[in-house]
Each structure stands twice: as structure tokens, then as C-alpha cells.
Amino acid sequence: MRYIIVSNGRISDYSFYKNIFNTSDYIICADGGAKHLIEMNVIPNVIIGDLDSIDKEHKQIYIEKKVKFYKFPSDKDATDTELALDFALSNKPSEIILLGAIGSRMDHSIANITLLKKILDNGIRGKVINENNEIHMLNDEFNEIILYGEENDYISIIPLSYKVKGITILGAKFPLKDAEIPIGSSLGISNEFNNDGVRIKIKEGLLLVIKARD
């Protein structure tokens, strides 16, 4: 099953997300993410968080729609997005997609991106999507991915562990074979797609993979 979590980050082009919701099985709203769902006319299955960011008007709409709420104290040890993720993980879906996870608050944006590791640690595939980025993570177990790009798309890899070993990239303008890249290197930024999909595989480490467009 495909779970979608909608958070309170920046979403500008609501039409961009239509197909994503059309292929979802379960939708979780993380508190203030309700404003985005209202704009997209999407009814979530549940709303989770301390409920300090959701507008009263939006909350009332979803109460009338009989959406279930899970309220947490304001003083808590996890963000609303992580609370929503924990709920999703407890249901053991096959995939989790985070929307509205990137915004003007860099602390929240980075924290949400690193939640991809928590998803992988539970044996589940995950990704963060916005209008300009599709973000994945690879580790020793989920160590391979194929991505397809369009004109003006880029593909970048960023090591998150001390070193990522055995990196192989096929189908890109700048291929790699069994390479090793340390954290802090920009070697993997702004590679380009050829005509077919790009295959990325690693042997050891933690690697962020981003399909991006300007």
C-alpha cells in the first residue's frame, strides 16, 4: 500500500500533485498540512499532530467530514511529520511519500529529508517530492534505484555516511563504476540523464539521490 503524508511546508502548484493522490491508498495529514489538502479538495484519512498549526476553519471542515484526529501535546519529542510517519510505519505500507516536507524552515526541511532513513530502517521505500525535487535514499539493503528524467532534469547523489562505497551510475552523462565518495564531496551534483533511465547502485553507506529541476 502507498501512504502519503502531507506536511505544512511549501506547496505552490497544487495541480502538480493530482496524479500522486490518484495512486494513493491512505492519506495522513500532519497538522498544518490541512491547508494544502483543502486547496486540493482532498480528504485525509487521519490528521495527526499537536494541532497548533491547523486553522480552526479547516479543522471544522474535517470534523464535519468525520476525519479522525490524533492530538499530541505541544511539548513533544517529535515533529508533527515524524508523528505522522510513526503512524504510517505502524501500518507497514510498502511505500511512503512525503509531501509539503520542504519549506522555508531549513531545520524542518533537513529533518524531514532525513526521515527517509527511518523509513528505510523499517524495510520500506520512501521519497520526498515537491515541484522541483524527488528525493530518495539508498542504504546497504535498499541499494539500487532506477530513475527516469525529462529535458532539463538533473540527477545528484550526496553521501550522508562517512563514505559511500561501490557507487555505480549507469545511463547518465557522467557514469561511475565502483566509486567511493566521502561525505562533504560535491562530485555527484548535477549529473544529467541520457535517453534511458539512470541506474544507481551502492555497496555500502548511506546515499541521498535527488532528481531535480530548476
TrEMBL record:
Signal peptide: none annotated. The keyword Transferase applies. This is Thiamine diphosphokinase. SUPFAM superfamilies: Thiamin pyrophosphokinase, catalytic domain (SSF63999), Thiamin pyrophosphokinase, substrate-binding domain (SSF63862). Keywords: ATP-binding, Kinase, Nucleotide-binding, Transferase. One of its GO terms (biological process) is thiamine metabolic process. It is an enzyme of class 2 (transferase). Residues 149-208 form the Thiamin pyrophosphokinase thiamin-binding domain. The keyword Glycoprotein does not apply. Its EC number is 2.7.6.2. One of its GO terms (molecular function) is kinase activity. Pfam families: TPK_B1_binding, TPK_catalytic.
